[in-house]
Design brief:
Number of helices: 17
Helix content: 40-55%
Strand order of the largest sheet: 8-7-6-9
Structural class: alpha/beta
Strand content: 5-15%
Radius of gyration: 21 Å
Number of strands: 10
Shape: globular
């Protein structure tokens, strides 16, 4: 590893060095080495409720809850998005390599991101599909998309995605957005081969639910596995709100005397002059402190109510404080996560909350990479599924981890050299 990478991402560089030549089959098994847990029934109840709202089969829901107690491991790298790209698909492949054949693949995706984030939560993303493969022949949407594509290409644009949202929604958090009236008419104009891959629209229900079910359908077909995507941000918001209403001592203690360098933090969506914006806020001295626009929130009851009303989205520290350190779930993550999760853990070790938290050190939680096909081109799930191609995890088990990690190393080195 380069000196720059060792300095900027020391834990990542160390893991690359240790497992660069490890076969995927061996590496994947280690991801799920975790002791069983007696998970909080309140949390499992929230998981069940959300899974039913998204529309997963009841037997899948029951199996997931049992699995989380027996093997408390979840994938937390993902953003809420209806289609995965080559990076998320590499993460899926790595994680699935460690799962039993009939196990549920649990993805807890964050909706605390804008629609225009790197995963393009407000779009269907693809690789080399033609617009005639995406839209029904003669549809108005095809005409509009063809014109937009020509304009992008004239300006050097190479975007391969179909936007499902209006321009003003680009910076809006997925967390607080509902499925709009314009979604179903647009989806009805898609090609007949595409429509069965998409979840049904439920007007007024969370966008993240539609994105979760759509992603689970496509990734499930791609790998031939049971994939369940849930909204991690909503689960955490509902859990914190519930615990505050119950007067849970742990959360009340945290609110009254925050941990050094860490307190419950939130993202606050609000409407700007031309588009939606997001502000960051933290809890301090019994009230929510916001730099700019945001709700006036004071006291424990006010915080619980704002979370339940989706006025506040749990940010990174709050999300992993709950999932990793309160509940004890092993959170598989990308190259940034393996760094900050350990920093969070070390920070909490010296706090007054230590006796009440799950602070054991965990290893082999890195799931990152980028997936390329035999032709050397990135793998886009929508392209694969529409062409009837499936990816068998067994076919990759002898691949070295460097197969997936080399593109990440090149990306990081490029970013470091551009400083």
């Amino acid at each position: 590893m380069s000196t720059g990478l060792c300095a900027s991402h020391p834990r990542l560089a160390a893991q690359f060095e240790e497992d660069w030549d490890s076969p995927l089959g061996e590496y994947g098994k280690r991801l799920f080495q975790s002791e069983p847990l007696s998970l909080d029934p309140d949390f499992l109840g929230l998981v069940q409720n959300q899974a039913r709202q998204i529309g997963y089969p009841e037997d899948w829901i029951d199996r997931l809850c049992r699995q989380l107690c027996k093997s408390p491991v979840i994938q937390t790298s993902h953003h809420s998005t209806p289609t995965h790209g080559p990076t998320f698909t590499a993460i899926d492949l790595i994680t699935l390599s460690g799962l039993d054949t009939e196990a549920i693949y649990p993805i807890f995706a964050t909706s605390g991101v804008p629609f225009s984030n790197s995963a393009w939560s407000g779009a269907l993303s693809y690789g080399s599909l033609g617009l005639d493969q995406l839209f029904a022949t003669g549809s108005p949407a095809l005409t509009k998309a063809t014109k937009a594509q020509a304009e992008r290409e004239a300006h050097g644009g190479q975007e391969a995605r179909l936007s499902l949202i209006g321009a003003k929604w680009r910076d809006h958090l997925v967390f607080s957005a509902d499925q709009s009236e314009s979604l179903a008419p647009l989806l009805n104009q898609l090609h007949p081969n595409v429509q069965p891959l998409l979840a049904p629209v439920r007007l007024g229900q969370p966008w993240s639910h539609w994105a979760a079910k759509t992603a689970s359908l496509i990734q499930g077909k791609l790998f031939g596995k049971k994939v369940m995507v849930l909204d991690m941000s909503v689960l955490v918001a509902d859990y914190v709100a519930l615990k505050l209403k119950q007067g849970d001592p742990l959360f009340l203690e945290l609110l009254s005397d925050p941990v050094s360098q860490g307190t419950l933090d939130f993202l606050v969506p609000y409407r700007g002059k031309k588009s939606f914006k997001v502000n960051r806020a933290s809890w301090d001295g019994g009230r929510l402190c916001c730099e700019k626009a945001g709700p006036t929130v004071e006291g424990v009851e006010g915080l619980a109510a704002a979370l339940a009303a989706r006025e506040l989205c749990p940010a990174v520290w709050t999300s992993f404080f709950v999932l990793r350190f309160v509940l004890g779930l092993k959170c598989l993550g990308s190259f940034n996560q393996v760094g900050y999760l350990e920093n969070f853990r070390l920070q909490l070790l010296d706090s007054k909350l230590t006796p009440h938290l799950q602070l054991d050190a965990q290893v082999d939680d890195l799931t990152t990479g980028r997936l390329f096909g035999p032709d050397g081109k990135p793998v886009w799930p929508l392209d694969q599924v529409l062409s009837g191609q499936q990816l068998s995890v067994d076919n990759f088990k002898d691949c070295r981890m460097s197969t997936f990690w080399e593109p990440v190393v090149r990306q990081l080195k490029s970013a470091l050299s551009g400083r």
